[in-house]
Amino acid sequence: PISGDMPDGASIPVLGLSNKAIKDSDESQASVTESDRGDVVSNFLKSDSNFGQDRPPLEADLSRDTLWPEKEKLYGHGNEISAIAVSNSKSVIATACKASSVNQAVIRLFDTQEWREIAPPLTVHSLTVTCLRFSNDDQYLLTVGRDRQWAVFEKNEMDTHLYQLREFRPKAHSRMILSACWAPAPIGTDFATAGRDKAIKFWRLQDGGEAVLTTTVTATLPVTAVDILPLAVEDTIIFASGAENGEISVYNLQLPAYTISSFPLSTNEQRPSKAITQVAWRPPPAAGMTNRGKYGKREEQHDDMQLAVASEDNSLRVISIDPKPGSI
Question: Is the pLDDT of residue 16 over 80?
């Protein structure tokens, strides 16, 4: 909309989840009282934290200065959401919630075209599901949980919105699994799981057989997050992990021998003060990339890659990392 049609600001109603526009209109007055509007608009105009300054916006800035109209609600879970994932085609959403019983430890799929649940829910876990990840081609859905097992669901050939259990591995870790991710598409069907047993394990799905454990990285502390750079660099997988004390680690995994090497990060001097909840690599640009060779090498070397790190201390950090082996 043009600037004249823009609302003065926004506020979150009491007991509300979505912020509402603050504007001189009958519609706005129906949902926001005059006193509320005056306080919010006054704070909005006086605030020195509006957009356009040389720092990222804080949560308060976003709730006041941006408006995200609510489009749909998805129902089904009885408890708060513990994990969510969206397919790469953006056609399916997978969700799980905190579970106090087996019946609650299900994964629900939703169709984004009609915004309806795709029945039946996926069942395999007995405790809370902690991470959901679709494969690069959406052929598989990887799930891990507090019950120490991982599971892989495969897309139904007849109905591409349906997924069915392909394989699961009970006691894949000795303690709860907290994170998982897929390797880049050219690598194949490799995936990683990380848990409180201080281990990051790499697995490979086999055609017509059980998945095999290819290698294990042993950490010094429980691993709470893991993510693989979505592009192989000179036949090398680069992956990052976060620990419960806020430490961040980056590794090279050389293929096909699965040789591991790690690199210290100077950013750990300003690491989060509490456990890492998620690490995520910024997707590389399509320009200048090509899938050459067996593992899909890069044609152009960019100066650095960026890693987003979220923590229980309510902080979000973005770290620039040079992905060339030996120079992180």
Answer: no
Give CA–CA dist 124/106, Å, rounded: 7
Closest CA to 131 of 86, 84, 66: 84
Question: What's the half-sphere exposure (Cβ side, CA atoms, 13 Å) at 247?
Answer: 13
Other beta carbons less than 10 A from residue 211's beta carbon: 19
User: What is the per-residue pLDDT across 83-99, written as a single tens digit (0 to 9) for each?
Assistant: 999 999 999 999 999 99
- In whole angstroms, how far apart are CA 168 and each of 77, 85, 123, 164? 23, 19, 11, 11
| Residue 234 φ then ψ, to 5° | 50, 55
Report the candidate in 59, 119, 112, 106 with the shortest Cα–Cα distance to residue 86. 112
CA dist., res. 226 & res. 280, Å (int): 8
pLDDT band at 284 (very low <50, low <70, confident <90, very high): confident
